[in-house]
Structures are given as C-alpha cells and as structure tokens.
Amino acid sequence: MERVSTGIEELDRKLNGGYPINKVTLITGMAGSGKTIFGIHFIHKNCLEGRKCLIIATEETPEDILYQARLVGHDLTPYYESGQLVIEDIFENRSEIIEQTRYGFKSETLDIEIPDLVKLIHEGTACLVVDNIGTFALRVSTKKLRDQFDGLNYLVRKKGCTALLIMDESAHDMTHQLAEYSVYGSIRLLVKENSYLGKMERYMYILKMRSTPISPEMSVFDITSEGIKIHESGGESLAE
Asked: pTM for the whole thing?
C-alpha cells in the first residue's frame, strides 16, 4: 500500500512508511497532548514535497496555527502565503455566530455538519487536517454521528485526500468513541506520570492501522523546538 509521510521519522518507521494514502486517520488525546503538533508535522512535510494541503481549523485562527508551527521548527507561512497551504478558518466563523446568538441574532451558517466539511476541500488537495472535529461531533445523535463519519470518510477518499481528523478526548469519550469504527487508522495521545521517573510524560500508541503490522506498545515522545521526537517503545511499564 502506498503511504504518505507523517512528517515524523520515527512514526513513519512504525507505520511502514507513513499514513496510508487516500485514507483517514484519527488522532485523539487530552488537551496538551500534542494533537495539533502531529497535524502540523504532516502538513509541513507534505508541503515540502510539493503537495497541496488544507487545514480546517475549528479552534484556532490561521495566525495561531502559523505561530505554533514556527515554535516547533516547522514554518508553514511560506506555503500559506503562496496558496499551496489553505487554512479554512471555521474558528472565527463559530466565534462570530456565538457572539451573534448571545445578542439574539441568528445565522444561516450555524448548522454546519461533518459531511459539509468536504465542500471546503479545494480541487487538487492531497493532504487534509481537520482540527478539531469534536466541535461538530457533539451536536448530533449517536446514530447520525456514525452515519456522518462514514459519509465523511467516503467523501474524503473520493476526493483523493489523505486526511487526519483530530478529536479531543472529551468529545471522543462523549460520543462513545464511534469515530474509531469509521476511520482507517487511529492514534491516541496522552499525558501521564511515569512512576519510575516521578514526572509527567507524553505517550503515543497506535490503536489501529489497517493493512499495517503495528505494535501495541506505547512510545514516549517529546515536543521540542525542532518538533516531535518519539523514543523507543518502553513496553508494559508504560501501559500500566
């Protein structure tokens, strides 16, 4: 199966070359676990390789994303300014809607649902990140949510995109982790105490990746000024 680089060398090795092309991978985790940084790595690497990329941002402005990318040594600004990278700013639209609603106004743009995101994918887009899709997942029934995730996965593949859906842990749990069943792959991030070292650390494990032999062990990773550095898996002690 053809792969697209994750932008993280150690993760590419774990996934036999990267994310499966034209498939959807889910990244979940608690606040501060590094979800957005995983998305930045993916977009930066594929911009470097000449692919057209898209970020659909529901919780940050384009300026916030570009600033965060520079902090981890993955400057996206040149690609954004040239148009190779498009950042669709759902965040500011949502903020305006909330403000209008507070004062009694209504807006037709309030009712965006998960499959509607496909309408934002520009022609020729090869790589897509939706951060955070949990924003939309909490607004629909359980049955409708499963149908919407299935529909989104189908439509994204039809568009020829390799996509990362980033979802916060609270939304993932509140929706009974339904997204796991629709996506091709799933990676979970967490922050917990390493009882051996007596300090908090970030962990990653690959919950599933179809057509890919994967290890169930957790890996420790750091977020540095040069991006994410994944260490060798530590075995059962990390999973306790």
From this structure: 0.88
